[in-house]
Amino acid sequence: MLLLAPARPARAQFSLDARRIGMGGVSLSRGGDLRRFNPAYRAVKDRAADGSAPRLTIPIPLGLIDFLKEHPLNQLDEDPLFDPKSPLFNPVELMNLIFNPPIFYEVRKVPAPTNDVEVTIGKNAFVVDLGATQVLIPEQEFGLGSTSRLLDMGFGFAGFNIGVMGFLQYEVGFTLDDALRDVLKNADSVRANTSYRILGDGLVQAGLAPTISFAGRLTRGPGGEESDDGIYLGAALHYYMGATYARGVGPGGFTTGDPVFGTTPIGLLDDTLYTSNGPFGTGVGGDVGVAWISGPFEVGVGVNDIGAELTWSDTKAQRIYYHPLTDSLYSTVLVDHVETTTKLPITYIANAALRMGTGTTVGGEVVNSGRGTVIHVGVEQRATVFAVRGGIARDQRKKMQFGWGGGVRLGSVGLDVGFWTHSNSFADKRGITMATSISIY
After folding, report:
1. pLDDT for res 224
2. 3-class DSSP string for the chain
3. Whole-angstrom Cα distance, residue 164 to residue 211?
4. Range in 29-38, 43-52, 202-211, 294-303 the model is least confident about
5. Domain boundaries, given as residue ranges, for the chain
């Protein structure tokens, strides 16, 4: 269960820019997420051109330095953090490390739940009281998933762009049935002749997509050619060529005998696995976006993978099950060489920013990359060479997080520090990360 529990949706958006972390995750750059999710921003000049945004950000990995000091690379094979055979090994602490990569310094680490586990055994009873670690047991479905564009290359002219992008989409979810949840969450006794199951549903698909897109300014503002004012539109058409696809659906677990400790529990696995016999799954989808800039104010909306349905012309479905009499796994082909369809989830971003003459910038964004909606709102106040920042966010677990920080800029070089609370762990307490980076303007 400890191995499965980390899959619950606990990941938050991560950045290597201390400016962004100090503003609650808001990006005031017109690159990055905006161009990723909103094709209209391909026609908008980046703010780095006017000197208000850095051309390059270099993170200062104080956390990594501290981590390597505590966990030397030449001693990792004996480190209790990574050695399951060590009596000090704590899988929860290891999973918290994965959720929070030690790039930046952890001002306040989230403690890994540890306590004694009470086990009660009788002829017809088996009770496991996990104590404080019951917080690891999810009440509803837990899982992870994302949609990524790993590659985006091409060339353009007159607003048009022709290229190819790589895509990866995965979705894994698990649900404990009521009986197993009561055993782990409420210290209920295992009962005779009862099945305890985990219901799983996982999907992964990846491939390439030749793309043609266009982005341009529909109307111009009163500032003329030199001004960014106006309405920008963008659209992209993708021809998806899926290279691989697999989906598994089914339960796993065990069934007790009668009495519980009078017989060996019977293993349970009955899964239907769908796989592609070979590439390619093909389909057509598109992106659309709009951005409006008027003086110090701008707003944009972008939507990706609209209508992206892939057809896999040659797939196989097989049943994988466990046979208790022979203690072996078996597979039976249900259907072969059949057509199957999958969909890429629609992803979107909505953003707004306001720049005031007093050196104040306020921004916000709503992002959904296929696994929950994340909201960021932040503000930056500049005075001469100094900057003060703050922000608030709602993460994928619907918990509020806070950011604050500041920086100093001397000529073309700036030093920034940002603090960020996070709940990327199993405990209910928040951790605090301090990010540091150098900005080159």
Report:
1. 66
2. CCCCHHHCCCCCCCCCCHHHHHCCCCCCCCCCHHHHHCHHHHHCCCHHHHCCCCCEEEECCHHHHHHHHHCCHHHHHHCCCCCCCCCCCCHHHHHHHHHCCCCCEEEECCCCCCCCCEEEEECCEEEEECHHHHHHCCCCCEEEEEEEEEEEEEEEECCEEEEEEEEEEEEEEEEECHHHHHHHHCCCCCCCCCEEEEEEEEEEEEEEEEEEEEEEEEEECCCCCCCCCEEEEEEEEEEEEEEEEEEEEEEEEEECCCCCCCCCCEEEEEEEEEEECCCCEEEEEEEEEEEEEECCEEEEEEEEEECCEEEEEEEEEEEEEEECCCCEEEEEEEEEEEEEEEECCCEEEEEEEEECCCCEEEEEEEEECCCCEEEEEEEEEEECCEEEEEEEEECCCCCEEEEEEEEEEECCEEEEEEEEEECCCCCCCCEEEEEEEEEEC
3. 5
4. 43-52
5. 5-440
- The predicted pLDDT at position 425 comes to 61
**How far, in Å, CA of 199 to CA of 268, rounded?**
11
- Check residue 36 and give its pLDDT: 81
Q: Which amino acid is at 246?
A: A
Token pair of 337, please?
């060489």
Separation CA 102–CA 94 (nearest Å): 12
The torsion angles phi and psi of 6, rounded to 5 degrees, stand at -60, -15
Report the chain's terminal Cα–Cα distance, integer Å: 48
Q: What is the pTM of this model?
A: 0.77
Among candidates 437, 352, 343, which has minimal Cα distance to 30? 352
- Cα–Cα distance measured from residue 48 to residue 46, given in angstroms and rounded to the nearest whole number: 5
Predicted confidence (pLDDT) per residue in 17-28, tens digit:
999 999 998 887
The span from the CA of 370 to the CA of 367, in Å, is 9
Q: Which of 367, 217, 235 is nearest to 293 (CA)?
A: 217
Cα separation of 359 and 311, whole Å?
Answer: 52
Q: Count the neighbouring beta carbons within 10 Å of the beta carbon of residue 110.
A: 21
pLDDT tens-digit series, residues 57-79? 899 999 998 888 888 888 888 88
